[in-house]
Amino acid sequence: MPPGWESFALRIHHKPDVAESLAQDIPRRLVRCSVDDRGRRNRPPVERGHTVFAYVVEGSACFDTGRDPYARENLVHYGDGDAVSITAEMEPVRFLLVSGKPIGEPVAWYGPIVMNTPEEIRIAFDEYRNGTFIKHR
Questions:
Q1: What are the percentages of helix, strand and coil residues in the chain, rounded to 5?
Q2: Confidence (pTM)
Q3: For the segment 27-82, what is each residue's pLDDT rounded down to a tens digit?
Q4: 117-53-70 Cα angle (round to 5)
Q5: Which residues fall within 8 angstroms of residue 87, CB to CB, at 6 or more apart?
Q6: HSE-CB for 39 with a 13 A CA cutoff
Q7: Pairing relation of β-strands 93-100 and 28-35?
């Protein structure tokens, strides 16, 4: 792994009613990354067929040739391939690089909440309004 890159284990929590269908091991990777030298490029390998995204924590960098740099609090979603290219042009950058095999479930999204169906989104907002959205064990 290139200097400045560290791997971490990623635990994914699933809703209990779908946990059995997801019992198989789902390959995934979360890497905390940095590119400290201007003009330096890193090309970390990624596995074909995996969904890959980068979340910029600090600084800015070009995550795709021919595009403007992405800065703090931006998320870059990649298409299929076997490597990503990140170049720090103006300043150092720190970002999370996440990849994993897609689980093939539908996605419903509204604001900060992501679920599988529009009905689950409605229920989540009802629970939020009623103060029951966060479950305490």
A1: 15, 35, 50
A2: 0.60
A3: 667 777 778 877 777 777 788 888 888 888 999 888 877 778 888 888 888 877 77
A4: 120
A5: 35, 39, 40, 41, 61, 62
A6: 0
A7: antiparallel
CA distances from 34 to 21, 41, 89, 118, 137 (A): 36, 10, 13, 37, 37
CB 75 within 8 A of CB 51: no
- Split at pLDDT 50, 70, 90, the class of 118 is very high
Both tokens of 14, joined, read 């699933």
**Alpha carbon 38 to its chain's center:** 24
One-letter amino acid of 90: M
Strand runs labelled E in the chain: 6-8, 28-35, 41-42, 51-61, 70-71, 75-78, 86-87, 93-100, 108-110, 113-115
Count the Cβ atoms, other than its own, within 10 Å of residue 62.
19
Report the share of the chain in percent with pLDDT over 70.
79
Per-chain mean pLDDT for the chain: 76
